[in-house]
């Protein structure tokens, strides 16, 4: 059987880490694509030279041409700009909307049957733009954020209670922003819900509240430490778990930014919810019963996503509108021509 083809659009910090993980896990042959010519080629060569040491078989190719994406089974998109200290993810909207529009077009032309995972921020709006620009079915375009936010929540909980991360199951609902909703009631250690663990004395309500807030601020905490960019190891691991579930039809239940068509009362937006990811893409969306306070938090988070998508819609409409001919220059040119004609006529008379 031929190997799967994994295309990584954006060969920066996350792109390079994704490529290494895809190689180590032998998920398939890898194409790295980036607009900076030389970077994807250099990273591809460096990575493939690690294969004899690590013992994996895969081809690695770097390119700055969209045709390199031809026939890809999975595309993971990290192209664009990452934030720096003092910025919010939303500050990236203008520049990254343009990038997603170009990338979506490249995917549409070269690999319209692929399963596409968007990572670029602000995530919930960028995955919406990518789906619109690529024209791929919504079941095949998803956003990665929930796995990362949930991994942070799981890690902080495991650290607090001195238990293995493997036994902590937790997830985060809503948009990938300051208003994300870590789901305390549905998070467990070995099946025991967090509120029960508070009763057992494993955790205090005050510590749990701090962990919830640290989870919400998880991205900013790393940006503040790195200073030149944002997190990339955990984001890459998170996206690879989604790609693996699709390629191996594992049907894992993972929190992803999925296109909602009425679930949770939300229509036409991408928002983080638990999904079953299998060979058919997003195969199912898990709709949980939320209590009043969870509903209110989700509503706030969805409001933030909706506001960003409205800005994207405006930008895309403006970009698609026919350009009006510049009026000043021709008017000036016409005046110049009239003056020249008059001068010639005067000369002729004389
Ligand atoms: N969803 C999440 O949970 C999550 C987590 C971490 C980072 N991010 C986001 O992922 C994105 C990438 O992060 P990174 O750390 O890899 O950044 P990076 O700057 O290291 O890499 C981005 C790469 O994209 C390339 N690029 C820019 N415009 C392009 C285009 N039009 N076509 C192809 N490539 C293009 C750049 O040359 C660069 O190599 C950022 O927007 C960041 O905010 C999201
Ligand atoms: O915080 C960022 O800017 C990057 C990413 O969204 C993250 O959560 O690490």
TrEMBL record:
PANTHER family: L-2-HYDROXYCARBOXYLATE DEHYDROGENASE (NAD(P)(+)), L-LACTATE DEHYDROGENASE. The gene is mdh. It catalyses: (S)-malate + NAD(+) = oxaloacetate + NADH + H(+). HAMAP family: Malate_dehydrog_3. It holds the Pfam family Ldh_1_C. The keyword Acetylation does not apply. The lineage of its organism: Bacteria, Pseudomonadati, Pseudomonadota, Alphaproteobacteria, Rhodospirillales. This is Malate dehydrogenase. It is an enzyme of class 1 (oxidoreductase). It comes from Pelagibius litoralis. Its EC number is 1.1.1.37. Coiled coil: none annotated.
